[in-house]
C-alpha cells in the first residue's frame, strides 16, 4: 500500500485521505437520508456546523497550546495543528455550540443525536471499507459491503421506531469491520518489518551513504544503526523547512537521553554551504547538518518535495516516510 497520495504540491498519506473521503461521504449519507425521508435539514445543518467548528478550533488550537512559539513563528499555524489535545478542545467547542443552538431552537435533542449517530456509523463503515480495499483485504471489503447494504435499507426507512435496531446493527458491524482491518493491518506491518531488501519502501534497508557535516566530520547512515533515526532532507529557502526546524530541535533536546538520532541532510547542490551554516546558527541547531553537495544522496532517496523525512528503526529498516513539515508531536507519533 502506498504511503502517500500526491496531487500537485498537495501530499496526503492514505489514512488521512481515507479519513477525509469517509468524513465527507458520511455527511453525504446523512443528507441523502434527509432527502429520502423528506425531513427538514435544520438538524443536518446544525451537525455540519458543529463539525466545521471542531475542525477550525482543532487547526488553530496550536496557538492555544503553544502561544509563545506561535507568536515567535506565526507560520506554524499554517503547517501545524493542536494534535490530539486540539481535537479535544475542538470537540468541547462543538458541544458548547450545539448546546447553545439547541437552547435557542425548537429542535429536540433526540433528533440531533439521531443525525450524529448516523454520521458516526457511516464514517466507521466507510473508513473501514476504504482501508480494507487499499490493503486488498477481500474478507473485510466484503464485510463492509454487506453492512453498506444494511445501511442503505436503513436510509430508506421512514419509521423512527426502527432506529435503535438498525443503529445497534450498523454500529456492531461497523466496529467489527474496522477492528478486523486494524488487526490485519498490524499483522501486515509485522510481516513488512521482517523484509530486509535494500530500497525505500517500508521494511526495506535504506541505501547507505557518506556525507560531511558543517564542521568537516564524515558521517555514514550505517554508523547510527541501533538508534531510531530521523533522516531529514531540507534547504534554507524552503518555507516549510524553516517552520519545522525549531520543532525538530525541540524534539532533539527533549529526547537527548533516548537512543534517537537526527541526520539533517541539506541539499547543498540546490543551496549553498554558507546558507546552511547561517540557517543552523539562526535556529541554534545542535543535531548534525550533513551537506549533500552533489545531490547524489537526495537523488538516491528519490527526494522530490521538501522537507522529506525517513524514520529508520534501530534495526536499520525504514518504518515511516513523511512528506511535509514536522512538529514534536508528529515526530513522537511517527515512532509509534
UniProtKB/TrEMBL annotation:
Example GO molecular function: oxidoreductase activity
One Pfam family per UniProt: AhpC-TSA
Alphabetized UniProt keyword annotations: Disulfide bond, Membrane, Transmembrane, Transmembrane helix
Transmembrane portions of the chain: 12-32, 44-65, 77-100, 112-132, 138-156, 163-183
Residue ranges annotated for the Thioredoxin domain, each copy included: 200-336
SUPFAM superfamilies: Thioredoxin-like
Stored PROSITE patterns: THIOREDOXIN_1, THIOREDOXIN_2
Gene3D superfamilies, per database record: Glutaredoxin
Lineage: superkingdom: Bacteria
PANTHER family named in the record: PROTEIN DIPZ, THIOL:DISULFIDE INTERCHANGE PROTEIN DSBE
Stated name of the protein: Thioredoxin domain-containing protein
Amino acid at each position: 500500500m502506498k504511503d502517500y497520495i500526491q496531487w500537485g504540491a498537495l501530499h496526503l498519506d492514505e489514512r488521512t485521505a481515507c479519513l477525509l473521503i469517509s468524513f465527507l461521504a458520511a455527511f453525504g449519507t446523512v443528507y441523502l437520508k434527509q432527502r429520502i425521508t423528506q425531513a427538514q435539514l435544520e438538524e443536518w445543518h446544525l451537525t455540519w456546523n458543529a463539525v466545521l467548528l471542531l475542525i477550525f478550533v482543532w487547526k488553530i488550537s496550536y496557538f492555544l497550546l503553544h502561544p509563545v512559539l506561535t507568536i515567535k513563528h506565526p507560520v506554524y499555524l499554517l503547517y501545524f495543528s493542536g494534535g490530539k489535545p486540539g481535537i479535544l478542545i475542538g470537540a468541547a467547542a462543538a458541544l458548547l455550540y450545539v448546546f447553545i443552538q439547541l437552547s435557542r431552537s425548537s429542535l429536540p435533542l433526540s433528533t440531533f443525536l439521531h443525525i450524529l449517530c448516523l454520521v458516526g456509523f457511516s464514517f466507521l463503515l466507510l473508513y473501514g471499507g476504504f482501508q480494507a480495499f487499499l490493503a486488498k483485504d477481500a474478507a473485510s471489503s466484503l464485510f463492509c459491503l454487506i453492512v453498506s447494504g444494511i445501511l442503505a435499507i436503513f436510509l430508506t426507512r421512514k419509521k423512527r421506531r426502527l432506529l435503535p435496531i438498525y443503529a445497534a446493527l450498523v454500529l456492531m458491524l461497523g466496529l467489527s469491520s474496522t477492528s478486523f482491518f486494524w488487526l490485519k493491518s498490524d499483522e501486515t506491518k509485522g510481516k513488512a518489518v521482517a523484509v530486509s531488501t535494500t530500497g525505500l519502501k517500508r521494511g526495506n534497508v535504506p541505501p547507505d551513504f557518506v556525507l560531511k557535516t558543517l564542521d568537516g566530520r564524515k558521517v555514514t547512515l550505517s554508523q547510527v544503526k541501533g538508534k531510531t533515526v530521523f533522516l531529514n532532507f531540507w534547504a534554507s529557502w524552503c518555507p516549510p523547512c524553516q517552520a519545522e526546524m525549531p520543532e525538530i530541535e525541540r524534539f532533539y533536546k527533549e529526547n537527548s537521553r533516548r537512543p534517537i538520532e537526527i541526520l539533517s541532510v541539506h541539499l547543498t547542490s540546490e543551496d549553498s554551504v554558507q546558507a546552511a551554516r547561517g540557517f543552523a546558527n539562526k535556529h541554534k541547531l545542535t543535531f548534525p547538518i550533513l551537506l549533500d553537495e552533489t545531490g547524489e544522496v537526495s537523488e538516491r532517496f528519490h527526494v522530490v518535495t521538501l522537507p522529506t523525512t525517513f524514520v529508520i528503526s534501530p534495526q536499520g529498516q525504514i518504518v515511516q516516510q513523511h512528506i511535509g513539515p514536522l512538529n514534536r508531536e508528529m515526530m513522537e507519533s511517527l515512532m509509534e
